[in-house]
Amino acid sequence: MTVLTTNTNTTADTTADTSPLVCPVTGRTAPPAARPAAPPTTPPAAPFTERYLLDPSVNADPYGYLNSLRDHDPVYWSAMHRAWLVTGHAQLMHCLRAPAVSAERVRPLMDAVPEGAREDAERAFGILSRWMVFNDAPQHRRLRQVFQEQFAARSIGRYRAFVERATRAMLTRRAVPGRIGDLVADIARPLPALVFARWLGVPQAHGPSFWYWNARVGDLVLGAAQEEREYRTSLQSLVNLDDYLADLVKQRRADPQDDLISAVLAGGQIGKSVSEEEFVGMLTQMAFAGGETTSNLIVNAVLALLEHPEQLAAVREDPALVSMAVEEAMRFDGPSKMSIRTAARDFDLDGRSVRAEDRLFLVTAAANRDPARFPDPDVFDVRRGSASHLGFGFGAHFCIGAAFARLVAGAVVDVLVREYPGLELLDGQHTWQPSLLNRALTALPVRY
User: Fold this and answer.
1) Residue 167 to residue 195: CA distance in whole angstroms
2) What segments bear the compositional bias annotation Pro residues (predicted)?
């Protein structure tokens, strides 16, 4: 028992008190001591040591380090990364609202291209400059509004039956109960690609080339391309993707179909508020983003459920919790760790003087576990009931594809949870792709 009392004399006495110590709860005595124990002291906090965000151990499990970074300083200047690391929820929300924080970052991408590949880069980076995620208001608003209606939840909901059929068909072929497989290769990667290509209007026969180009564009945008040869391949893939989609837009003008391109063209804004060149450029962004985020969300959600059996049991008992499980996965271990911004001008952030041209890493993975915003933030709880996480961003740059990602991820989780009672993780370490931005497993071995 740790709570002990003794009768003490009010007069000074240099003689050691050797009377037994009595526990007020149990009445038991402790052996007499020659001198009273020293009161407990709180050990000093360990000094904070900055670590490289792509250190293999940090990349594999970033949350312990990000928690310590946020606790040390939620707005931290990192000489190592040459950027402000913003990890507090309130501070990150401030950045997402602040006009002084700019999303325009094509030039830094251009600056990273090796000298030998610069001659290939001009057209490719012109395409990237038309991506709405790389534009600020009012350009961002003008570009985004042509897609707004088609990406609304009510419009995406039209594809629910198709998504559910495609999910069951793919799982039936690739995930036979009792068989060992890789959830990434079997379902998480191909299903969003299949669904988004169908929605965009890409013929099935063109799928392999279309998704190869998208993967190489991802290498460029996410920083995986390092060598000159890799840059050249990525830059050319972006140009090829742009050419392909420009031709598809011409076909849909002549012969509309039931797809995203035809629906946007029917809205009458292409060629008026937004040029056709801008429209095609944004379609390259949609094509790139349409599979990546959703694939990673599926994998991370399933991994979280399998690693927390009591939460998996709760969802199996009440399938209405599926959508809440997807939202909690976005908060707990979402597919995006951060976004990168630049300061358009000098401004104050939580008492820090941010200068024009400074880079800011908005670390949503840390903000989504900020105890000032989320009780017990390191606990995965499908009944948390809060969609106020920042996994899809916030404000003007809130992910336009959020409804699509929720629909597809929810369909996969629903079928796996209800129809695969034997689903289990296989032993072994998980390998995460080295990326500042994405939280993506290379494989997820399971027994179906």
Assistant:
1) 9
2) 33-46
Return the residue matching tokens 């063109």. Answer: 206
| Cα 432 to chain centroid, rounded | 13
Domain CATH number, residue 282: 1.10.630.10
pTM: 0.85
Using alpha carbons only, give the angle 100, 105, 107 rounded to the nearest 5 degrees. Answer: 125
According to DSSP, residue 23 is labeled -
d(Cα 176, Cα 448) in Å, to the nearest integer? 6
Same domain, 23 and 67: no
- Give the bridge partners for 77, in sequence order: 84
pLDDT digit string, tens, across residues 416-436: 999 999 999 998 889 999 999
pLDDT at 319: 92
Same domain assignment for residues 102 and 28: no
Q: Looking at the predicted structure, is the pLDDT value of residue 332 above 50? A: yes
Residue 191 neighbours by CB under 8 Å, 6+ apart = 166, 167, 170, 298, 408, 412
For 193-234, the pLDDT digits (tens) are 999 999 999 998 999 999 899 889 988 887 777 788 898 899
Q: Which residues contact 229 (CB under 8 A, 6 or more apart)?
A: none
Q: Look at residues 91, 298, 322, 46 and name the one whose alpha carbon lies nearest to residue 189.
A: 298
Angle at 92 between CA 369 and CA 85, to 5 degrees: 85
Closest CA to 423 of 435, 415, 434: 415
Domain containing 443: what range? Answer: 56-447
Beta bridge partners of 446: 181, 425
| Same-domain check for residues 264 and 115 | yes
Q: Using DSSP, state whether 423 is helix, strand or coil.
A: coil
Residues 6 or more apart whose CB falls under 8 angstroms from that of 272 comprise: none
In a domain, 47, yes or no: no
Q: Phi, psi at residue 341, to the nearest 5°?
A: -130, 170
% residues pLDDT > 70 (the chain) = 88
Alpha carbon distance 320, 383 (integer Å) = 11
**110 and 5 within one domain:** no
CA distances from 204 to 8, 47, 129 (A): 87, 56, 29
Q: Stretch 252-278: mean pLDDT, rounded?
A: 95
* Nearest CA-CA partner of 303 in 325, 321, 319: 325
Does residue 88 sit in the same domain as residue 28? no
